[in-house]
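Lecture notes, part 5. Sequence design as translation. It can be helpful to think of inverse folding as translation between two languages: the language of shapes and the language of residues. The source text, in structure tokens, appears below.
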């Protein structure tokens, strides 16, 4: 029986009525009437674009993708291409397997007729799938049906992309071939290069991000997928390898008796113009050079300041380092020329972050009406920084009411209300380098009574 399609699910009516009678014959088998195109009784319309249907078939018939969950030689594998899906309801009351080839479709249900739960190990894949497998193999063999696959539409394109991200390949990412839709009015082909696969230089002994303190013979390069903040918890729960987030201190670098950098401190976050300060010996040092380079072991150094120290001792300013056009990991190097014409270097590594975090208000919205019976107004924002978030400040009528610390993600608090009015709320997000961004002001109405 043809399936009735829904013209508009929200309005609840069908485009076509379901058909119960397909053919009428007399006692001798002569066809008096039949449902069909020639008689003008057959009507049809596409309810799913052929390219989308092909992708669904391709996903549901991918034996290799099923292996991690079901293993080799599982009951979902036929001797021909077959799209199939299992399902198990709560308490194992129902176990389903529904699948099809281009010629046949079969659905199998397993359960108790009194709706009692089945054994914990009886699921769609263990209870219904073996029956489905046997029926499908038998039916195709009985009817001598040839092995067929689904015909690929011309709008389906195979393209090489980066694994996991599905974005355009870069030299760093492992590459796979995937299917995409490329139609005149719609396309899923990627247009952006991958930004998630990254190479990290790490200390091979402790797995931390390598720094200037890491012995050169212990520095190795590893490739990681840098999951976006929204996916990190999932990646952790599924055992995905995550890039390190902590820096190798190498046991620390002993302070020089001649000179040392005190600010900025090692592995800190900096922005803007940084006043590099430290200690310089009063007698041994004749001159100094302050420079910086990109990365943990710079191959190129750019001078910041040099000369004979104007002052000596504690809290000496070696110069202002303008980082406004920089972002990322950098190494500061202070080189001291001694009286005996030898040099003594001191390095410190910092992360330059001049980008403020992004800030999106989740709740409340301007114009919201809140009853005093609720007791509180729920304030919630999503704040994400490219390096490291620090905290979010919440303001009511320009007065600070809460400070919430945390990492990239959601920051929230509840503010007590006990009277009617029209308060305004705003939020300011700060990253670890001190960059900040202020939200728009939202105004709500608080009403008393029921």
């Amino acid at each position: 029986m043809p399936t009735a399609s829904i013209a508009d699910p929200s309005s609840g009516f069908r485009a076509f009525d379901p058909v119960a009678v397909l053919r009428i014959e007399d006692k001798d088998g002569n066809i008096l009437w039949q449902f069909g195109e020639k008689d003008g009784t057959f009507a049809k319309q596409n309810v799913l674009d052929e390219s989308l249907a092909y992708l669904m078939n391709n996903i549901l018939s991918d034996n290799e993708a099923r292996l991690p969950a079901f293993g080799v030689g599982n009951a979902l594998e036929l001797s021909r291409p077959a799209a199939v899906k299992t399902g198990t309801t709560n308490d194992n009351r129902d176990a389903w397997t529904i699948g099809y080839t281009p010629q046949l479709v079969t659905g199998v249900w397993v359960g108790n007729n009194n709706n009692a739960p089945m054994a914990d190990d009886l699921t769609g894949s263990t209870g219904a799938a073996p029956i489905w497998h046997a029926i499908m193999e038998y039916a195709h063999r009985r009817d001598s049906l040839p092995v067929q696959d689904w015909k690929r539409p011309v709008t389906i394109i195979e393209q090489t992309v980066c694994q996991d991200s599905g974005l355009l390949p870069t030299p760093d990412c492992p590459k796979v071939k995937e299917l995409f839709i490329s139609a005149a009015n719609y396309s899923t082909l990627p247009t952006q290069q991958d930004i998630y696969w990254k190479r990290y230089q790490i200390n091979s002994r402790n797995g931390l991000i390598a720094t200037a303190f890491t012995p050169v013979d212990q520095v190795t390069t590893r490739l990681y997928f840098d999951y976006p903040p929204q996916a990190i918890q999932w990646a952790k729960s599924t055992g995905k390898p995550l890039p390190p987030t902590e820096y190798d201190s190498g046991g620390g670098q002993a302070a020089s008796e001649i000179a040392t950098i005190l600010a900025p401190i090692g592995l800190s976050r900096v922005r803007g113009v940084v006043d590099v300060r430290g200690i310089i010996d009063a007698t041994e040092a004749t001159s100094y050079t302050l420079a910086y380079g990109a990365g943990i072991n710079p191959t190129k150094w750019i001078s910041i300041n040099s000369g004979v120290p104007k002052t000596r001792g504690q809290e000496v300013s070696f110069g202002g380092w303008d980082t406004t056009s920089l972002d990322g990991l950098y190494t500061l190097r202070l080189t001291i020329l001694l009286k005996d014409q030898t040099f003594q270097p001191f390095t410190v590594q910092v992360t330059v972050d001049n980008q403020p975090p992004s800030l999106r208000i989740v709740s409340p919205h301007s114009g919201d009406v809140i009853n005093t019976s609720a007791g509180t107004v729920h304030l919630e924002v999503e704040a994400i920084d490219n390096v490291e978030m620090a905290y979010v400040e919440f303001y009511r009528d320009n007065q600070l009411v809460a400070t919430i610390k945390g990492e990239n993600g959601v920051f929230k608090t509840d503010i007590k209300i006990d009277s009617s009015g029209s308060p305004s709320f705003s939020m300011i997000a700060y990253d670890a380098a001190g960059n900040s961004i202020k939200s728009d002001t939202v105004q709500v109405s608080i009403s008393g009574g029921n």
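The translated text above is only one of many valid answers, since several sequences can fold into similar shapes. Residues 1-11 have pLDDT under 50 and may be disordered.
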